[in-house]
Amino acid sequence: MTDPAQGVSDPGTQLLSLEQLTIAFGAVRPVDGIEVTVAAGEVVGLVGESGSGKSLILRAILGLLPRHATASGRIVWRGTDLLTLSQPALNATVRGKDIAIVFQEPMTALDPVLPVGLQITESLAVHRRLHGRAARTRAIELLDLVGIPDAVRRLDAFPHEFSGGMRQRAMIAIALASGPKLLLADEPTTALDVTIQDQILKLLLRLRAELAMSVILVTHDLGVVAETCDRVAVLYSGRMMETADVHALFRAPAHPYTQGLIASVPDLKHAREPLSSISGAPPDPREFPPGCRFAPRCPHVLPACNDGQPPSIHLSSGHSAACLRAHEVLVPQ
Amino acid sequence: MTDGVATPASDPVALPHRQPPRRPPPPQAASRPGVARLLRPAPTAGAAILLLFLVCAVAPGWIAPYDPLAFDYRALLKPPGPAHPFGTDNFGRDLLSRVIWAARVDLQIAIFATLFPMVFGTFAGCLLGYFGGIVDVVFRRLVDVIITLPFVVLVIAIVAVLGPGLTNMYIAISAVGWIVYARLVRAEVLTQRRLDYVASGRVMGYGAPRIIFRHLLPNVAPTVVVYWMSDMALAILLGSSLGYLGLGAQPPTAEWGVLIADGKNFLTTAWWMSIFPGVAIVLAGIGFSLAGDGLAERLRRRT
What we know:
The structure holds 2 protein chains of 2 kinds. Chain A is 32% helix and 22% strand. Chain A has helices at residues 54-61, 87-92, 106-109, 116-128, 132-145, 151-154, 164-176, 194-211, 222-228, 246-251, 256-263, 326-329, and strands at residues 14-25, 28-39, 43-47, 70-77, 80-81, 99-102, 182-186, 214-219, 231-236, 239-245, 313-316, 319-321. Chain B is elongated and about 75 Å long. Chain B is mostly helical. The interface between A and B is medium-sized, with 32 and 19 residues.
C-alpha cells in the first residue's frame, strides 16, 4: 500500500472493484450493472434514494444477500472475486478482517444483551487472538479512538445505556476491532440528529486518515456526500446514473437526475420558498422502463431514451454519465 | 390465612349522610397509586408462595406434624380442628401432612416434566429458526399434526401405552412438550435473526454456532424462561390430573391430584379431603404465574 495515510485516491492501489454487479430476485433486478472502484484510502459515496439498491450492493460485497437473490458480475477484492467464495471462505478471508460494516440503525445493530465491551473483545478474540486483559486494554483504546469518553467505565455498559450517537460510535469501534482495510458505512448517520451526524462523519474521516482505511459511504444525503466523499456514484433504480469526483459532481453534474437531486437540496438562502423536487416517483422494480430508468421523470427526455439503456458517456477523467444528452445537459455552474 | 375477609364489611360513609360534600377527588387520587402499589408486590407474593412450597418440598419431615402414610383408626374422617388443621382422611391420615409431602412430588413434576422439553425444545428451536430449510418444513408439518390432537389426550395415550407411574408420565410429557418450546423459540429466532446485530455477527465473520448460542440464545432466553414458569404451573395441573385419573403418581404416594381423587367419594361428607389439595394446586399455579409475570417484566425492562 502506498502511503494511503493522506487519504488521497490513487488508482494504482485499487482495493475493491465492482464489475457489472447485478443482483436479481427472479426476473426483478434491483441492482443492474454497477461499476465502482475503491482505491486505498479513498472515500466513495453511493448516493440514491430508497430502493435504488445501495444497501443491497453493500450486502452483496459481504455475501449477506437474502437466499433467493442471485448476484452476477464480479466483486474483486485485491484480486479475488468475492462472489465465487462460499460462506465459510468469506468468514475466513474478508468478513470481520479486511472489510467491516457499520449499519444504519445503531439501535438494533448491537446485541442488546451483551455489554458493549464484550462485543468488542469478542471480535478481538476471534480475529486477533487477543484475550483477557490484552483484549480489554485494546477495547478501551478503541472506545477512546472513536471518542467515547470514560471508556474504562463504558466498557461494561449495555447498549441500552448508550445514546444513539454513542451506539454508533460503539458500532464503529466494533467494526474497527479487526483492523479493516475497507469500512462499509450503510447510512451511518441517518438515524442520528444533525449535530451528532456531523460528529460521526468527522470521526469517520479522521479514522480514515489515521488508520489508512477506505470507506464506502452509502447515503441519500448529498450534504453528507459533499462533506466526506472523494468520489461519488449516483444510483437510480439500481443503475449507475453518474460517477465523478465530488467536486466535478457538484460543479458540473452531467445527468438530469443528479441535477434534480442537487436542486432539491434545501437551501437556507431560499428559505420559505417551495422546495424544488423531481416530479414523479421511482419506477416499480417489477416494471422498469425499457430504456433509461429515469426517462419517465426526466425533463430532458428524448424518444431515443426509451429505446434502450443509454451508454455511459465519458466526460472527463473519472467523470461519466449514463445519459444520451450528457454533453448538452452538463452545464458548469 | 384464617380470616381472609377484608375489614370494611359495613360502609359508614354511605349510611347516615345523604348530602355529598363534594370531595371525591382526594380519595380517587389516593386510590390510584394505592392500586399501583398493590400490583407491584404481586411478583413478591408469587415468589413467597413458591418459596413456601419449596420449603415444604425440601424438608417436609420438619414441617409436617404427622407421618403422611400413618393410619390412625381413632381419627377417621375428622374435620379440620386443632389436632388436624386440614382434617383426616378415611384411613385417619393427617391431610396437612399429606398436602405438605405432596408438594415434594408436585414440584418434582413441575421441574422434571418441563426441564427436558425446555432444554431440547430451545436447542431445536434455535437451529430450526436459524437454518430453516427442509428440516424446518418437516418440523412445521409435524407441529401441525400434533397440534390437532389435544396435549392431554396425547400424553394420556402415551402413558396408557407405557403404563402408569411418574417416570412414564415424565417420558410422555417430554415427548410432546418440547414441541411447544421449539415452536416458541423458532418464531423468536426468526424475528431476531432479521435484526442487524445478527447481520453484524455474520459480517464479523462469526460462525453459526457462535451467532446462535452467544448472541441469539441470550436474546431469546427471557421469553423461554417466562414461558417455562407458566409451563411449570401447567405441568403441576397436568401431573395432578393424571394422578387423579390414576395414570401419574400411584397411591399411597401423596400427590395433590391423587389426594383429590381419594376425596372424591367423600365430597359430600368430608369436603376437606379434596378441597385442601385443590387449594394447594391453585396456589401453586398462582405462585408460578405471578412470579413468571414479575420475571417477564423485569427482563423486559432490561432491554
